[in-house]
Amino acid sequence: MTISSTSGLIPSGSVTSSSIDVASIVGQLMQVESQPMTQLQNEQSGFKSTITALNTVQGAVSSFQTAVQGLTSLGQYQSYTTSSSNSAVSATASTSAIPGSYSVSVSQLAQAQSLVAAGQTSETAPIGTGATTTLNFTLGTISGGTLSSGVYSGATFTPNGGGTKSVTINSSNDSLSGIASAINAAGIGVTATVVNNGSSTPYQLVLTGPSGVSNSMQISVSGDATLSSLLSYNPAGTQDLTQVSAAQNAQLTVNGIALSQASNTVSNAVQGLTFNLTGTTASPATVSVAQNTGAVTTAVNNLVSAYNALNTAIQGVASYNSSTNTAGPLFGDPMVNNIQNQIRSILNTPISGTTSVYSTLAEIGVTFQQDGSMAVNSSQLNTALATSPSDIASLFSTVGKATDSLVQYANSSTSTQPGTYAVNVSQVATQGQLTGSVAPTLTITAGSNDTVNLNVDGNSVAVTLPAGTYSSASALATQLESSINGNSTLSAAGVSVGVTVNASGYLNLTSNIYGSASSVAVTGGDGSSGLLGSAPVRTNGLDVAGSINGAAATGSGQLLTSTAGNSSGLSLTIAGGNTGSRGTVSFSQGYAVSLNNLATSLLDPISGPIAAEVSGLNSSISNIGSQITNWQSRLASIQQSLTTQYTALNVMLGTMSQTSSYLSTQLAQLR
Known about the structure:
Strand content: 25-35%
Distance between the termini: 24 Å
Radius of gyration: 43 Å
Largest sheet: 8 strands, antiparallel
Shape: elongated
Strand order of the largest sheet: 22-38-24-34-35-36-37-23
Number of helices: 12
């Protein structure tokens, strides 16, 4: 047996005269054995790189969605700028404004009534006995009579229907400063201040109401006699305060039409336009309203920037670099390619259902470039803005346009498909009413016939009318409306009524809401029969009824909602009008809305394609991990076996080397 016989199995340089390098031999053999596991590890690493790239795509889609969500609001495409030729008149415009010029003349500004109390020697000293006292404030109109030195004679006072508001004064706040603080804290629309006039009794309480001729004050005081003699004020009776400023309306003309307004902020003169008056005008001011094209330009460029950012992010992980011959981790990935194709398909598809003159981005100068990016032709966009700026909104946002002015788009759902739908109304929504059966008694006596219990839209209240003889049924109706609407239960619920006198002279109470939830009922009270008779007629409100797109729709108040077909989820407000055909409503969804919906589906953590692919890759990584674990166990066993074998061989070779040395020595001695 010769040692050289192992040279074909043992790597060169591993054998010495007495031993072999077992670790080196086993290590080199294990490199061969572990090649399948190395391939698995490389495959696992590749999957992890793909997941990292998918996370990049997911983040880019999320950023893209955030950008397009900011473009879905209809208001930003319908904003307007205003200018005025006179600083005494300025204006702000809402989305419903109509571009144009308006001539505004102001002859008088609105003003609030101010009342001043008799002077006191101290603003912090108690006034009166400290007994609990109630200040009752009623706002209304002073008419007739004469005014001399701040005091009315022969005038009448008519409440404005806003109700009576109360403030409680007691020993904790019965000084001038305490009374002022209590009134201001009550939030009743009246402000109070204490002024120092420098006299021997310098401290005076000044009360100021809201502006407008119908907001003069009437103040009744119950409780402490001293406070009553200081603060009672009835323009038609006792006046313990002096008027230093009379309530008045703003007087103006808009395009030659005379207007009288309670405030210097006039919001109901022109649709969508609010005038702010700061002075009178010697000559008419010209107020101009124009489309805010800058906002539209910004929105268009933001969409293009958002798409280009997404395109760049995807190209970074899914493209092939021919100069370096390297491919991104998602190169050729069908899911990523499909994302790009879906987005481009949306942006290349004309908007359907729109009544706008524009239905594609290309028509306003937004086009794809050869490198896959988008660009804006500013000249073409400016031309579109100059031609029909309001129509650009339909390219981005959800738009509903009805041919009937009393039919308005209210809302839609994800099920609503673009299109033009016929609207038919079989029942117009109505308000709940209660109509008296006799003319009301005009004399109200406290504790005798001054209360009426009502249930308004499901809210039960007890109302007490101020005692007195009212000049007419209309005056009584005004006071009843004021007392009902001043009830805290109703005001907290956002509920109110209107009280009028019908042609028969009977009182008519009408809820302010529409639909089946609208009702007014009398439930008792010692004054109910005197006000409404023994058999008042109650008529509950009705919901709107009809069809949209030929299918029956659901009515709630004035809201008519489609529940079937392509129009499903489309809600319209039917604000009165006749029954029968009410024209059509055209519904469209712009690119920003469609892209936002697509992004939502792409990013869905359960069913979204990105999440599904990541889940599949994670499953593969887990399976490969199990295979790697099995290989590691197998390789450990192989390494142990090889180490045992070559260690034994090493021992055998050592023994043979010793034997060879012994024999060589013996042979030398024989010679």
